[in-house]
Design goal:
This protein is an all-alpha fold and 117 residues long. Helices cover 73% and strands 0% of the residues.
């Protein structure tokens, strides 16, 4: 990987790590205060930032298989292996595609949480 490109990616990863980590105190504080809206904002900050790091390190979606080998130099420069939790994208995908999960739940649920009303 070209050194300038490597530095650009490293800077992007660093910024996204700061964004993800900024969500942690939001989660902690809102959990203590019982502020559920703010808790989810913090979770989204954490997961979105971590997801963006993952995309930078391995690529995303249908391009992941092609991009992962090209991003090896970036992962190596940051000492990140495929054993990293950032390699798994299931949680990010669940949050990013939450609308699809709602549609699926609605289509499969017979009660639609009628016990709540």
């Amino acid at each position: 990987m070209d050194q300038l490109l490597l530095r650009v990616f490293q800077g992007h990863v660093a910024a996204q790590c700061r964004f993800a980590l900024a969500g942690v105190p939001v989660i902690d504080e809102s959990a203590r205060q019982g502020d559920h809206d703010r808790l989810w904002i913090g979770c989204q900050m954490l997961v979105l930032g971590a997801g963006n790091v993952s995309k930078a390190l391995w690529g995303d979606g249908r391009h992941r298989r092609a991009l992962a080998p090209r991003r090896r130099a970036l992962r190596e420069s940051l000492n990140v292996t495929d054993a990293s939790p950032l390699h798994q994208v299931a949680i990010r995908n669940h949050l990013e595609h939450f609308d699809e999960r709602i549609d699926c739940w609605w289509g499969q649920s017979s009660r639609h949480n009628s016990w709540m009303t």
